[in-house]
Write a structure and sequence with these properties.
Layout (H helix, E strand, L loop, with lengths): L5 H4 L3 E2 L8 H4 L7 E4 L8 H13 L7 H19 L7 H10 L9 E3 L5 E12 L5 E13 L11
Parallel strand pairs: 1-2
Antiparallel strand pairs: 2-4, 3-4, 4-5
Length: 159
């Protein structure tokens, strides 16, 4: 029903239902559907630009997904902790303390943890568009919120 004209009458917003993994299957049906995400391929920071370029070089017909960006950041976070303890993984408290510092440059841009260990990060409005060759991709339409912290962090007993 949405495909049969409702799209022009009722806007549809999505979170996580349209991404670089599902877009090839949704094709033209995804055009004009806005969404929200904490990472998009076109975020203008050095780490993201390099990550996307390296990914596309290895996989020319694909764009990295949000899940790939999360995994990349997670690997950087863990690597920083392992380096800080010189490979001694028995130093769990030291590793945790190092991870809390977020001593790496995220592909998401600004990124840190709140007192409850929930990320403080920006959220972006994304749109499905076509590039000059007709390929569909996700484009950052706007920044929805910058450095957003969850609304319940002050109720969290973690210190």
């Amino acid at each position: 029903m949405y495909k049969q004209g409702m799209k022009q009458q009722i806007p549809l917003y999505a979170y996580g239902t349209i991404d670089e993994l599902s877009l090839p299957l949704q094709k033209e049906n995804a055009l004009g559907i806005l969404g929200a995400q904490v990472w998009v391929n076109d975020l203008p920071n050095e780490q993201n630009t390099r990550f996307v370029a390296d990914y596309r070089k290895k996989h020319p017909d694909l764009r990295p997904s949000f899940y790939g960006a999360q995994a990349y950041d997670a690997a950087q976070l863990i690597n920083g902790a392992v380096v800080a303890v010189k490979g001694d993984l028995s130093q769990k408290d030291a590793m945790k303390a190092e991870m809390e510092k977020v001593n790496f440059k995220s592909v998401r841009g600004s990124y840190k943890y709140g007192n409850n260990h929930v990320p403080i990060q920006s959220f972006y409005l994304i749109d499905v568009v076509k590039d000059a060759s007709g390929e569909l991709f996700l484009k950052t339409a706007a920044t929805i919120v910058e450095n957003d912290q969850d609304r319940f962090h002050d109720k969290c007993p973690m210190k």
